[in-house]
Automatic annotation (TrEMBL):
One of its GO terms (molecular function) is histone methyltransferase activity. Residues 28-141 form the SET domain. It comes from the Eukaryota. InterPro entries: PRDM2_PR-SET, SET_dom, SET_dom_sf. This is PR/SET domain 2. The gene is PRDM2. Pfam families: PRDM2_PR. The lineage of its organism: Eukaryota, Metazoa, Chordata, Craniata, Vertebrata. Residues 150-199 are annotated as: Disordered.
Length: 199
C-alpha cells in the first residue's frame, strides 16, 4: 500500500454558494451558518425557539433512479408503487431547498429532527424544543422514523409498520452521512458559530 496517497479533501461549502431561492425559502426561525458537526458543510441553525412537533418541508430535489445518482449525501429514497424506489436528490443546490443543508447528528442522542414521509414527500419534524443557537440535526434508523438511526440498520430493508399501508417507506443508503465510518471526524462538537442570533 502506498503511504504517500491521501484521501480526497471534500470541498468546503460557503454561504456565498447558497442559491438565492434557498435563502428566500428559509423559515423565520432558522438561518444558515457553517455546521458544527461537519466543518466542510453549511448547517441550519435555530435563531428563535422552535417548539417540539414543528414540521418542515418537503425536502426538494430531482426525482431519479438510484443508478442516476452520483452523490448520495443529499438524498432520500422513497418507494413509489408504480415506479419502485426513487431518489429525491438535492446534490445540486439549485434543485434543492434549505432542508438540503440539515446535517446528520453524530448520535441519536444529539438528534432534534426526524424524517417523516407524507404522501411520498420527506418532511423533518422536531423531536424536542430547539433553542436559539442549536444546529438542526436529523437521525434515522430505517424502521421507525421516531427512533434514533443506527448505522447497522442502514443495510436492512425497512419493515412496514402498522398504519403505513399505502404509504412509501424511507430508505437511507450508506453515504458520507454515515457517522459510523472511521474516516469521518473523530468527534462532534455542537458549538454554535459566533453570530448574533436575534437577526
Amino acid at each position: 500500500m502506498n503511504q504517500n496517497t491521501t484521501e480526497p479533501v471534500a470541498a468546503t461549502e460557503t454561504l456565498a454558494e447558497v442559491p438565492e431561492h434557498v435563502l428566500r425559502g428559509l423559515p423565520e426561525e432558522v438561518r444558515l451558518f457553517p455546521s458544527a458537526v461537519d466543518k466542510t458543510r453549511i448547517g441550519v441553525w435555530a435563531t428563535k425557539p422552535i417548539l417540539k412537533g414543528k414540521k418542515f418541508g418537503p425536502f426538494v430535489g430531482d426525482k431519479k433512479k438510484r443508478s442516476q445518482v452520483k452523490n448520495n449525501v443529499y438524498m432520500w429514497e422513497v418507494y413509489y408503487p408504480n415506479l419502485g424506489w426513487m431518489c429525491i436528490d438535492a446534490t445540486d443546490p439549485e434543485k434543492g431547498n434549505w432542508l438540503r443543508y440539515v446535517n446528520w447528528a453524530c448520535s441519536g442522542e444529539e438528534q432534534n429532527l426526524f424524517p417523516l414521509e407524507i404522501n411520498r414527500a420527506i418532511y423533518y419534524k422536531t423531536l424536542k424544543p430547539i433553542a436559539p443557537g442549536e444546529e438542526l440535526l436529523v437521525w434515522y434508523n430505517g424502521e421507525d422514523t421516531a427512533s434514533a438511526w443506527r448505522p447497522d440498520a442502514v443495510h436492512q430493508r425497512p419493515r412496514t409498520s402498522p398504519g403505513s399501508i399505502g404509504r412509501s417507506k424511507l430508505r437511507l443508503q450508506p453515504s458520507s452521512r454515515d457517522h459510523s465510518s472511521k474516516s469521518r471526524h473523530s468527534g462532534c462538537s455542537l458549538t454554535a458559530p459566533e453570530v448574533t442570533w436575534n437577526q
